[in-house]
Amino acid sequence: NMDPYAWLIFAAGARNCIGQKYAEMQAKMILTKLLAAFEFSVVPGREDCLPVPSVILKSHNGIHLVVKPRKDV
């Protein structure tokens, strides 16, 4: 179980988002569909990902990906 204060996209406490569980389930389903339909890889020569500490973890110089449709779908 995840600490409710670890991910604050839907707020926390007594007045948190009523659709939080539904939205999280939808996000997982979309990610599953994307991972099943496409192959993701890092652009050659762009493996350097400089993390920026913030409320969310993001990259200073972006994350460059190559996205190809899977042949076996």
Description of the structure:
By secondary structure, the chain is of the alpha+beta class. Helix content is 25%, strand content 19%. The chain contains 1 helix and 4 strands; from the N terminus they run αββββ. It has one helix at residues 20-37; strands at 38-42, 51-52, 58-59, 65-69. The strands form 2 sheets. It has a two-stranded antiparallel sheet.
What attributes does this structure have?
single chain, 73 residues, alpha+beta, two-stranded antiparallel ribbon, flat
Chain-wise SSE layout:
Blueprint: H1 20-37, E1 38-42, E2 51-52, E3 58-59, E4 65-69
Antiparallel strand pairs: 1-4, 2-3
Radius of gyration: 16 Å
Classify the secondary structure makeup into a structural class: alpha+beta
Listing every helix as H and every strand as E from the N terminus to the C terminus, the arrangement reads HEEEE
Shape: flat
What kind of sheet is the major sheet? 2 strands, antiparallel
The percentage of residues in β strands lies in 15-25%
Low-confidence stretches: none
Estimate the mean pLDDT confidence: 82
Q: Can you list the strand order of the major beta sheet? A: 1-4
Residues in helices, as a percent range: 10-25%
Q: Give the end-to-end Cα distance, rounded to a whole number of Å.
A: 33 Å
Determine the number of helices (DSSP H or I, runs of at least 4 residues). 1
Q: How many strand segments? A: 4
Short description:
By secondary structure, the chain is of the alpha+beta class. Helices cover 25% and strands 19% of the residues. It is built from one helix and four strands, in the order H-E-E-E-E.
